[in-house]
Amino acid sequence: MLSVKLHKWKKISSKTQASIYNKPAYVYIPLISQDDDNITLLVKKGDYVYKGSIIARRKGNLRIPIHSSISGTVVGFEEKYYQNGKLEKCIVIENDYKEKYQVNKGVKRNLTKYSKEEFIELLKECGVVGLGGTGFPTYVKYSSKRKINTLIINAIEAEPYITCDSVLAASKCEEILEAIDAIMEINQIPEAIIAVKKTNTELIHTINNFIGTYLRIKLVLVPDIYTLGYEKKLVQYLKHVSYQKYSMDVGIVVNNISTIYAIYQALKYQHPLTERMITFTGDALKKPQNVIVKNGVLVEEVIEHIGGYKRDKKIQLIAGGPMMGRAIPSSDLVVTSNLNCVLVLKPNTGKEVSEVCVHCGKCVEYCPTRLSPVLIKEHLNHPKILKQLEPQRCIECGLCTYLCPSRIKVRDMVQEAKQKVGGSK
Q1: Alpha carbon distance 369, 364 (integer Å)
Q2: Residue 56 pairs with which residues in a beta bridge?
Q3: Cα distance between residue 385 and residue 317, in whole Å
Q4: What is the C-alpha to C-alpha distance for residues 357 and 384, in angstroms, rounded to an integer?
Q5: What backbone phi and psi angles, to 5 degrees, belong to 194?
Q6: Cα four-point dihedral sign 64, 70, 71, 74
Q7: What angle, rounded to 10 degrees, do the helices at 201-210 and 164-171 form?
């Protein structure tokens, strides 16, 4: 299993100061969590909701609430595009621009004054999820009965174009370090590691300016190679251990650095996760930049807010980065907690015609989860063999497509195979 160094295109969005878009007339809150649409609706048309009100709740084992990102009135239900590329039913809320919380819970001066049980319940009820793109409920990672020996904070941001983690971490470094220290104290974790690419000099400099008083938190510089940000690979690189399903099984918790800031907001103010920083970037935008956006805002509104498109609206829009993101047929896409990037590119006028697979083996050689994408591709219509090839283990990193000399969209075929065998990331 090898790694690849990719073109970065990071300066496009990081050279401009981050902005805020916080006054939408309406928000559209999707009735879906990760890719789970088994949701209990808790409001109806005409209901008044406060900012942070629980308006729906995910069912099943990973129960987690869905919050309103504004105060206002529920005016109906509409379908909008979600980052999975599908139209999903959304709760439409009209903004009263008052930003009212139902209860002001005040400010927690000492973030360590929570029991572990209180901490887990707070993360759950505040809807804190992984902000690196997975949307996995964060409370689950701390709910294991196994002792946590190491907390790893993933600040690698491996995909090209995306800079929201680095920009947020640089501007909120003190708060993030305070949150890490509190997480360690509450959960009795002896060490924490912040993993940053050695090429990210600005973030390294910022962390070094503040980390001195936090003796149990280490800054570790890692190579600038793609898929090192993948959780299993990062754990193996930093701690030289491997695991089958969850890092908690080997006493390790991994959180994205933006997730740590969401935990800070929960610990300090008991505020649910209703907004996040997102990278809006690409060669079709006039002013690529990072924007703090409320959940449920339409992407089209944010693009207009930051200056719009360079020429016309003939664009390629991708929810996520160029490697793991999904093409969306419309800018009628809603912002959610698991959306970290909106990539807007000029249409590709060149002919990208796939050729016959030459069985070079690159997709196998570089696959971070040790799959055989070429075999999965060739057995899409053979269910028994497909199941044995375990396509559900694919993390959809996109390396197979990126490296394919025949320009075959291998990742799309593996995604199709995952659906056929009922697998998920």
Answers
A1: 9
A2: 41, 66
A3: 35
A4: 23
A5: -100, 115
A6: negative
A7: 30
Q: Where are the alpha helices (DSSP H) in 97-244?
A: 116-125, 164-171, 173-187, 201-210, 231-239
Tell me, yes or no, if the pTM score tops 0.90.
yes
Report the Cα–Cα distance between both ends of the chain, in Å, rounded.
Answer: 19
Residue in the structure block whose two tokens are 């003939």: 314
Separation CA 217–CA 215 (nearest Å): 6
pLDDT digits (tens, 9 = 90+) for 205-264: 999 999 998 999 999 999 999 999 999 999 999 999 999 888 999 999 999 999 999 999
Six-digit token pair at 80?
Answer: 């909008």
Residue with tokens 């394919």: 404
Structure tokens at 204: 């390294």
Picking from 119, 123, 124, 147, the residue whose alpha carbon sits closest to that of residue 61 is 124
pLDDT in tens, 271-329: 999 999 999 999 999 999 999 999 999 999 999 999 999 976 688 999 999 999 999 99
Cα separation, 407 vs 375, in Å, equals: 16
Here the tokens at position 27 are 């928000």
- Amino acid identity for residue 157 in this structure: E
Q: What are phi and psi of 140, to 5 degrees?
A: -60, -35
